[in-house]
């Protein structure tokens, strides 16, 4: 089980990334627009850098929904390999058959 603080920090980052996504996208579009002057593009980049760092989507870490584990994460299932194996052994995941010999 991951530390509660790390899980909460990641949830806060997810919320911030979602809230700031439209503003961040608009500023990026202005900064990358070749038709604008260099000064306007530079101002857009300055405003972009003034946004909170945790509002950037690449700061969000994929974590297991069951355990909070940050590594060995399956995106499709939103859980780690260890949680998947445990739930599969218990028969809680439909269609999953864990082989054992």
The CATH class designation of the largest domain is Mainly Alpha
Major sheet: order of its strands?
1-2
- State the shape: elongated
Task: Fill in the CATH topology of the largest domain.
Answer: Helix Hairpins
> Which structural category do the helix and sheet elements fall into?
mainly alpha
The CATH architecture category of the largest domain equals Orthogonal Bundle
- Total number of strands: 2
Overview of this protein structure:
Helix 1 packs antiparallel against helix 2. The protein starts with a helix and ends in an 11-residue tail after the last helix. The chain has 101 residues and is mainly α. The protein has a two-stranded antiparallel ribbon with strand order 1-2. It is elongated and about 65 Å long. It is 51% helix and 4% strand. Strand 1 and strand 2 form a beta hairpin. It has 2 domains: 61 residues, Helix Hairpins; 32 residues, no CATH class. The longest helix is centred in the N-terminal third of the chain and has 29 residues. One of its GO terms (biological process) is translation. This is Small ribosomal subunit protein uS14. InterPro entries: Ribosomal_uS14 (IPR001209), Ribosomal_uS14_bac/plastid (IPR023036), Ribosomal_uS14_CS (IPR018271).
């Amino acid at each position: 089980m991951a530390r509660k603080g790390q899980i909460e920090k990641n949830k806060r980052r997810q919320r911030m990334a979602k809230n700031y996504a439209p503003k961040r996208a608009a500023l990026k579009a202005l900064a990358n627009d070749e038709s604008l002057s260099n000064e306007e593009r530079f101002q857009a980049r300055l405003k972009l850098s003034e946004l909170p760092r945790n509002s950037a989507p690449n700061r969000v870490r994929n974590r297991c929904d069951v355990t909070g584990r940050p590594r060995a994460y399956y995106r499709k299932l939103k859980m780690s390999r260890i949680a998947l194996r445990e739930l599969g052994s218990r028969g809680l995941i439909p269609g999953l058959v864990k082989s054992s010999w």
